[in-house]
Amino acid sequence: MSANPETSAPQADAEHDEHGHHPTPRDYVRIALILAVLTLMEYSTYVFDFGGLGIPLLVVLIAVKFVYVASWFMHLKFDTKIFSRFMYGGLALAFTLYVLTLIIILFASATGME
Amino acid sequence: MASADTAKRGGLMSRPTAETGWTSWLTTTDHKKIGILYFWTTMIFFFLGGVEAGLVRFQLAQAETSLITEEIYNQMFTMHGITMVFLVVMPLSAAFFNYLIPLQIGARDVAFPRLNAFSYWVYLFGGIFLYSSFFLGGAPNAAWVAYVPLSTDAVSNMGFYAIGLQIVGLSSLAAAVNFIVTILNMRAPGMTFMRLPVFIWMSLVTNFLLLFAIPIIAVALFMLQFDTIYGAQFFQPATGGDPVLWQHLFWLFGHPEVYIMILPAMGIVSEILPTFSKKPLFGYAAVVFAGAAIAFIGFGVWAHHMFTSAIGPVARSAFSLATMFIAVPTGIKIFNWVFTMWGGKLRLNTAMLFSIGFVSMFTIGGLSGVTHAIVPHNAQQHDTYYVVAHFHYVLFGGALFGLVAGMYYWFPKVTGKLMNESLGKLHFWTWLVGFNLTFGPMHMSGLLGQPRRTAVLPGELGGTVEIYNLLSTIGYVVLVVSSLIFITNLIKSIKGGEPAGLDPWDARTLEWLTDSPPKHYNFGTIPTVTHRDEFWHRKYAEDETGTPVAVPAGGSEEHDAAVRDSEAEAEEHIHMPDPSYWPLVMTSGMLPMGYALLYASIPLGIVAVLWMLVGMFGWIIEPVAEGDDDEPEPVPAH
Amino acid sequence: MTAGAHETTLGLDHRKLAMWVFLGSEFLFFGGFIAAYLLYLDTTAGGPGVEIFDIPFTTISSFVLLMSSLTMVLAHHAHTKGDMRRMRLWVLATAGQGAVFLGGQVFEFNVFWREGLIYGDSPFASAFYTLTGFHGIHVFIGILMLLGLYSLTLTGKIKPGQPIKTEMIGLYWHFVDIIWVLIFGVVYLIPELALLE
Ligand code: HEM
Ligand SMILES: [Cu+2]
Fold first, then answer.
1. Is the pLDDT of residue C28 over 80?
2. Residue from B330, B340, B445, B588 carrying the catalytic annotation
3. Helices (H), B374-462
4. Pocket of ligand 1, candidates B205, B263, B305, B388: which has the most ligand atoms within 8 Å of its Cβ, to mutate?
5. Of C9, C13, C27, nearest to C176 (Cα)?
6. B335 CB-near residues (< 8 Å, 6+ apart)
7. Is residue C120 part of a domain?
8. What is the mean pLDDT of residues C100-119?
9. Looking at the DSSP assignment, which residues form a beta bridge with residue C180?
10. Is the pLDDT of residue B483 over 50?
């Protein structure tokens, strides 16, 4: 509807208008193809032996997939920054707290000093 | 909107319309009514929690005697803790959020009125579910912190705890989303962040804490529930599970939780002290910043509750440091409150007395908190009555004093009447004395070695400890008398209190701009905000020396059109959300759902799910009033 | 009181803001279970561990869920164009792929169970089933919402001028998909590499 400024556009679209470049179905399909390729690459770590590179590669692939879905399918790229803050803020908080917890637990049991 | 209108009139799905009478309470979506519902419900739970505390205190009044069995004793202190934390202090704060947030930001309601009703009913049913345990084989008895492996043992009845708190948590989560959106997105024109009343700031911070802390306890409670009822192995050492994981998850939630309980009270007090000191809050920005800092650091100190558990020396040092850091923003706030009063024209009425009581008692609790943060000290104090003294000074002397101050302060707003001041002062002084008599001696008895959560006071601790315990029990009796004075005052004042007038306190914030009690739609005209303490600035200007002088157009006492809310726009344009049955219908499904999970009953679970789905379906398809449904009629584009 | 977005302080629709606020908090929920799972990766009490995973199978079901995000976003796009016929088609396709994913999960659970990964036997088993089970429940709720969306467009309750409703459900759906991206990587692939080398 962003192409029809004369219609009384509902608010969701009024926002997109501000940013101007609402993605088209073609864009979405392109993103989906990229995601498919990335998934295939993830799978390849199971088939081939990447040695020590396997896990770092997987981490990167997961992150890229995450960002693609969030930015394009969830429109974060085109929406207000506030939404991104909630998304990545929640992610960062969860990551920090739980990783710290795991470190504490593993450290405490590894040193076996209790 | 013609279609919505006809639908609204028609048949089965029509929405309730009662504005008075008991159906109006069951179906209300008005934030003010929901606030009042919250308030009275917490009063009932406060009574229950108080009775449980009484049994504990009488049991410990003398050494080596037994009034109640150990089994009952364990249920009493456990239910006392759960009740006071989850069914009194948190929802009492929610009562204030509900009543005040829309009024103080110049809005007509919260963002999602039906979701707001949902939150209240879920809370109520969660509370009922928890208390039904007394009739269904015994209440939870493994303490509010529910340490495994004890808590996963069937004798602990912690299934009720795991599921009941899950239900109550759902209420808080829904409310948090609702209030965050309301505060971010429904402020009156000109109400920028730095013009928000401090109470609103603290509400915002609290609700963010809830938003991020509730999911953590949800995880912990699900694991506990699955371990206890369905044989999962999350915390079972027999198969390699780690009981300390529970402690981490609980306190990851638990420490933010203590700030969830104190920040609203801090917000309330930050409104009251300036009003009765006739000065703006000292260091507004610092108070706000400190509140946000407390919340942020508050997520990073959880393991200070676990210094005596297996966390290793590095974690101990780090968390000890972090915990001492958190006392800094707390200290900033205390200094700001003191400087607010400094040199002010103090009016020592009941609300003000309770606020000053808050600052002093909370400071004592904060100081004992810092002593806990010192690891060797902590090893000595942990699980003794010294800790009990600490958290009662911050929770009772802090949170509750602040909330009671808020009750006296906003009573005229809610009822249009004043509370009786002499009874109020009597309440304050007996409350202060009773409180200190009850919890002060616990510092001493704790340092002398009296353990927490022990059904019989050990005689070997000696006569001094016995005397301290007797004092505590006497203090409890004083508190009961004091509470009776309060309830008498409350009921008497509701029935026949003096008319309060529109602005009894010479207040500073927007809620006093409108009538008391406020009309259904709060404001005839949404105010435009140009200052922090907007209402004050409509009443006073400053002369060259900075002293406030009454604006001629609107004296502080007589209000005229320039100051008061205008009805100019009212009636025509205002569309308030309709009441609705569906939040009640849907949430009552929480009870069968709870029992289905508890007794692992699939048929009951199916009934409950269908019940709630029907409720949700009704919720979605019930007609929305004009103005409630923002979407334009179909405008198919090409 | 869902005022139009233009009347709100931030110029954002209440419902969309609320959805984002809620989704932000969901990380803390799934994160907790993922952490427990990682903690118990090796704690199998003699039962099966990560070697039980069938990576090719899970890759395919993960792929199906990923592609359901494409159809979801196409449904929203069609809705913004007022093309309700196409919108309904994409909504059904999304729900269908969700159902395929869920079916795959049920199948997988069955196989694992028969191979000896019993829920109450080890912390690993409890953590695995609970985490992926909660994700499955999220997918299930998403399917219910999609079917509700589908039917309500037929009754006229959801109008062509209200793409925000599809957008909201879409946000939830994509989020659940994103969580699976994390789970597929962190729960299946990485441990498989790390522990079986
Ligand atoms: C200056 C700020 C504070 C510090 C440094 C502090 C520190 C501590 C520490 C280290 C403990 C653990 C003691 C132990 O069990 O060994 C503790 C317990 C506790 N604190 Fe605080 N605290 C502070 C403020 C508060 C506030 C504001 C509240 C609530 C409004 C609170 C509520 C509690 C509760 C409920 C417990 C006991 C938990 C239990 O074991 O049941 N604290 N505090
Ligand atoms: Cu703490």
1. yes
2. B330
3. 375-381, 385-394, 401-415, 421-447
4. B305
5. C27
6. none
7. yes
8. 97
9. none
10. yes
The encoded tokens of residue B21 equal: 């009478």
Report the SS3 class of residue B549.
strand
**Spacing, Cα B302 to ligand 2 middle (Å):** 6
Q: Print the domain residue range for C60.
A: 28-35+55-185
Higher pLDDT, A10 or B75: B75
- Sequence-ordered strand ranges (E) for B496-575: 540-542, 548-550
Tell me what the pLDDT averaged over chain C comes to: 94
- Spatial distance between the Cα atoms of A113 and B243, rounded to a whole number of angstroms: 17
Query: Is B330 in the active site?
Result: yes
| CB atoms A105 and B244 under 8 Å | yes
Chain-centre distance of CA C122, in angstroms? Answer: 26
Would residue B601 count as lying in a domain? no
Interface of B with A in 246-285 (CB under 8 A): 248-249, 252
- Number of compact structural domains in chain C: 1
Residue B523 sits in which domain range? 33-227+242-577
Tens digits of residue pLDDT in A2-50? 333 333 334 444 444 444 467 899 999 999 999 999 999 999 999 998 8
Nearest alpha carbon to residue B166 among B116, B224, B248: B224
Residue partners of B489: CB distance under 8 A and separation at least 6: B419, B420, B423, B424, B427
**Based on the structure, what is the number of domains in chain B?**
1
Q: Which residue has the higher pLDDT, C15 or B568?
A: C15
**Angle value at C-alpha B359, between B358 and B363, nearest 5 degrees:** 110
- Can you give the CATH number for the domain in which B361 is found? 1.20.210.10
Chain C neighbors (3+ CB pairs < 8 Å): A, B
Distances in Å between the Cα of A90 and the Cα atoms of A68, A85, B103, B332, C26 are 17, 8, 30, 28, 8
Note which residues in 116-155 of chain C have CB less than 8 A from chain B: 119-123, 125-127, 130, 134, 144, 148, 152, 155
The residue contributing the CA closest to ligand 1 atom 20 is B391
Which of these, B214, B274, B6, B192, lies nearest to B94 by C-alpha position?
B214
Q: What is the CATH number of the domain that holds C143?
A: 1.20.120.80
Q: Which of B375, B256, B369 is nearest to B306 (CA)?
A: B375
Q: Sort out which chain A residues have CB atoms less than 8 A from B208's CB and list them.
A: none
Give the gyration radius of chain C's Cα atoms.
Answer: 19
- Provide the shortest C-alpha distance from residue C153 to chain B (in Å): 12
Average pLDDT score over residue span B297-308? 95
Residues C180, C101: Cα–Cα separation, whole Å: 11
- Residues B264-298 have pLDDT tens digits of 999 999 999 999 999 999 999 999 999 999 999 99
Q: Is residue B3 part of a domain?
A: no
Question: Could C17 and B181 be called an inter-chain contact, meaning their C-beta atoms sit closer than 8 Å?
Answer: yes
**Structural tokens at position B333:** 């706030």
Q: Evaluate whether residue B17 is within a structural domain.
A: no
* Closest of B459, B460, B466 to residue B444, by C-alpha: B466
| Backbone CA torsion sign across B484, B487, B491, B496 | positive
Does any domain span residue B590? no
Contact C165, B624 (CB under 8 A): no
Burial class from Cβ neighbours inside 10 Å (0-12, 13-18, 19+) for residue C56 reads: exposed
Ligand 1 atom at minimum distance from B144 CA: 41
Predicted TM-score (pTM) of the model is 0.93
Q: HSE, CB side, 13 Å, CA atoms: give it for residue B447.
A: 9
Cis status of the peptide bond prior to B517, with omega within 30 of 0: yes
Q: Under 8 Å CB-to-CB from C8, ≥6 apart: which residues?
A: B185, B186, C14
Q: Which of B257, B269, B320 is nearest to B294 (CA)?
A: B257
Per-residue pLDDT, averaged over B29-49, amounts to 97
Contact B24, B33 (CB under 8 A): yes
In a domain, C47, yes or no: no
Confidence of residue B537 (pLDDT cuts 50, 70, 90): confident
Q: Is B452 in the active site?
A: yes
